[in-house]
Specification:
With 300 residues, the chain is α/β, with parallel strands linked by helices. The chain has 2 domains: 30-114, Leucine Dehydrogenase, chain A, domain 1 (Rossmann fold), CATH 3.40.50.10860; 148-278, Rossmann fold (3-Layer(aba) Sandwich), CATH 3.40.50. 44% of the residues lie in helices and 16% in strands. The chain contains 11 helices and 11 strands. Strands 1-11-8-7-5-6 form a 6-stranded parallel sheet, sandwiched between helices. A hairpin with a 7-residue loop joins β9 and β10. α2 packs across α11. The longest helix is centred in the last third of the chain and has 24 residues, at 276-299. The chain binds NADP nicotinamide-adenine-dinucleotide phosphate. NADP nicotinamide-adenine-dinucleotide phosphate (NAP) is lined by residues 149, 172-175, 177-179, 196-200, 203, 216-219, 237-240, 276-277, 280.
Length: 300
């Protein structure tokens, strides 16, 4: 039976490390790390995500500032707020909660955020820096922000003692926010990486060879238990809500992997919920500390 990777415990460890770093930075430099989150509209899921980020900031000693705009806000209004936050030396991280309403061009928003404050790691400047990163040890030195969900996957693997160097890793999914960056991160950790997507032939055969499987597909139970090699590490990024009349809400969250069957053969596996999801916010806190550290260094 697989070891269950405890995303809650690991995310708490990461946040505790961030809190220590935030207080040390403040004691040494007087700089209090600060994250500004912008929420446009009243999407219920986005409101929950923003609230969770605020709670995490409080736990880490990071100052948080929230900007709420109505669903009718124009692109210029949003870009105006971003420009003010870019210019504010007291703000180290800026995050615009996605998705934004239709009248706003998401790409323009991502491009408008100062790359030095882009704690989501979505600005092309950060994507480019990350692509040329030789090792993760350079992150603070070079002021690079790694995207939070994929970085959380790597943190879960490493803190669970999974050896990535030389491992055969298979990533299912090639989105810009999960699949592609997690594949690049595995590559920089010296794994041999195969990326599968909707046009890949014989996915089951490819997954069967993998020492490490990262599933980021968005289809409940897509990865079958019988595809998993004995002893493999399985990271399930999927967050899919399915109907379940027996659940109190009438629905529940499931991942992209057939958990019960995969857990019978895997060496370790993340549950959904309680796995990758909790890591995203923890890594956002880490990026905010990185940003504040870079700002304090450049100010000195
Ligand atoms: P996405 O943008 O929809 O990408 C899904 C990927 O899966 C695409 O690359 C797609 O291939 C591939 N795919 C779809 N059907 C496939 C099939 N039949 N066979 C093989 N590959 C297939 O999704 P995403 O944003 O990466 O998110 C993936 C999952 O992770 C979702 O469940 C999402 O909710 C979850 N997620 C969780 C977190 C978190 O835990 N914090 C964060 C982000 C996302 P093509 O490129 O060929 O279309």
């Amino acid at each position: 039976m697989a070891e269950i990777i405890n995303g809650k415990a690991i995310s708490e460890e990461v946040k505790a490390g961030v809190k220590t770093g935030v207080e040390e930075l403040f004691d040494k430099t007087g700089v209090r790390a600060c994250l500004s989150v912008i929420l446009v509209g009243d999407d219920p899921a986005s409101q929950v995500y923003v609230r969770n980020k605020k709670i995490a900031c409080e736990a880490c000693g990071i100052k948080s500032i929230e900007h709420r705009l109505p669903a009718s806000a124009t692109q210029d209004e949003l870009l105006g707020i971003i420009a003010e936050l870019n210019a504010d030396p007291g703000v180290h991280g800026i995050l615009c909660q996605l998705p934004v309403p239709k009248q706003i061009d998401e790409n323009e928003v991502l491009l408008a955020i100062d790359p030095r404050k882009d704690v989501d790691g979505f600005h092309p400047m950060n994507v480019g820096k990350f692509m040329t990163l030789k090792s993760f040890e350079d992150i603070v030195e070079r002021g690079v922000f790694l995207p939070c969900t994929p970085h959380g996957c790597i943190e879960l693997l490493e803190r669970s003692g999974v050896v990535l160097k030389g491992a055969d890793a298979v990533v299912i999914g090639r989105s810009n926010i999960v699949g592609k960056p997690v594949a690049m991160m595995l590559l920089s950790k010296h794994a041999t990486v195969t990326i599968c997507h909707s046009r890949t032939k014989n996915i089951s055969e490819i997954v069967k060879r993998a020492d490490v499987v990262v599933a980021a597909v968005g289809i409940p139970g897509f990865v079958k238990g019988e595809w998993i090699k004995r002893g493999a590490a399985v990271i399930d990024v999927g967050m899919n809500r399915i109907d379940d009349p027996t659940a109190s809400k009438g629905s529940r969250l499931v991942g992209d992997v057939e958990f019960d069957k995969a857990a019978e053969v895997a060496g370790c596996i993340t549950p959904v919920p309680g796995g990758v999801g909790l890591m995203t916010v923890a890594m956002l806190m880490k990026n905010t500390l990185t940003s504040a550290t870079c700002f304090a260094r450049n100010k000195a």
